[in-house]
Structures are given as C-alpha cells and as structure tokens.
Automatic annotation (TrEMBL):
<keyword id="KW-0812">Transmembrane</keyword>
<keyword id="KW-0472">Membrane</keyword>
<dbReference type="InterPro" id="IPR007110">
    <property type="entry name" value="Ig-like_dom"/>
</dbReference>
<protein>
    <recommendedName>
        <fullName>Ig-like domain-containing protein</fullName>
    </recommendedName>
</protein>
<dbReference type="InterPro" id="IPR013783">
    <property type="entry name" value="Ig-like_fold"/>
</dbReference>
<feature type="domain" description="Ig-like">
    <location>
        <begin position="22"/>
        <end position="100"/>
    </location>
</feature>
<dbReference type="InterPro" id="IPR036179">
    <property type="entry name" value="Ig-like_dom_sf"/>
</dbReference>
<feature type="transmembrane region" description="Helical">
    <location>
        <begin position="122"/>
        <end position="141"/>
    </location>
</feature>
<keyword id="KW-1133">Transmembrane helix</keyword>
Length: 146
C-alpha cells in the first residue's frame, strides 16, 4: 500500500485585513460645446491580495493590484458621458468584496461625487470615532482627578 502525503495551505484573514470600500472621485473637462470628458478615479487602501477593478454593468473593464501593502491603489477610467451606463468600482480579496457605484445619470449631471455614499459614511464614522475618543478622554481626566 502506498502512503499519500498531502500538503494544505491555509490563508487566514484577520478582521483588520477586511476590504475597505473604494472611493470614487471624478473630474469633468469641457472640451467644446458638444463634448465633455469625464475621468473617474477609484482609490482604496491596499491590503493583502486586494484587487481593484472598474466595471461597466457586469463587464470588467480594467483591474490593478500591488504587492506593496502600505500603498494606495488607484485606477482611472475615461467615462463616456453619452452612454448613460452605470459604472462600479470593486475592491475585493478572496474573502470579501466591496463596491461603490458611479451612476450614469449622476455623471451626466456632473454630480458623480455626490452619488458615492462612502463619502458620507466616512464622515459619519469619523465624527462617531471623534465623539467616542472625546468621551474616553473626559472619563480618563475625571478618573485621574479622583
């Protein structure tokens, strides 16, 4: 009887390694009265095995990744204003996937930044964190006085 040896590799993703939501910024450039160029840039803080991709509907247009974990991933896309399609930026690793939408109607109106919910969510998280930090600081000062 032959003995079979197997090797199994296991990757563990800690909570700190979860995928952050990508952030979309847009730049509108009016070339002439009949043509406007829109560049959308998606960015996210890099983490282990992270892939950043642009999609038009369900079609992947482009992707990028980097082995440098301390870097920020950026991916720019020229958007056709006339097509009215919805675009999405996806940050994903083998465990999790986060998507930020760029809606065609918002691109045509020049309000693409306003369609990104992550700007508001990030502001709310920052304010909540600052509030919790302030409360903890006040409790510490009060405890030291006693």
């Amino acid at each position: 009887m032959a003995a079979h040896l197997g090797v199994t590799c296991l990757s563990v993703y800690l909570t700190a390694g979860l995928v952050p939501a990508p952030f979309i910024t847009t730049t509108l450039t009016v070339i002439n009265s009949s043509f406007t160029s829109v560049t959308a840039e998606c960015s996210v803080l890099n983490s282990r095995e992270l892939m950043l991709s642009w999609y038009r509907g369900t079609v992947r247009l482009m992707e990028t990744s980097s082995p440098k974990l301390s870097s920020k991933l950026n991916l720019s896309l020229e958007v056709d204003v006339a097509d009215g399609d919805n675009y999405s930026c996806v940050a994903e690793n083998p465990v999790e996937r986060k998507t930020t939408e760029l809606l065609g109607k918002d691109i045509q109106l020049g309000n693409a930044e306003n369609s990104s919910w992550c700007q508001n969510e990030a502001t709310i998280r920052l304010l909540i964190s600052a509030g919790v930090g302030l409360v903890l600081l006040l409790l510490l000062v009060d405890h030291i006085r006693l």
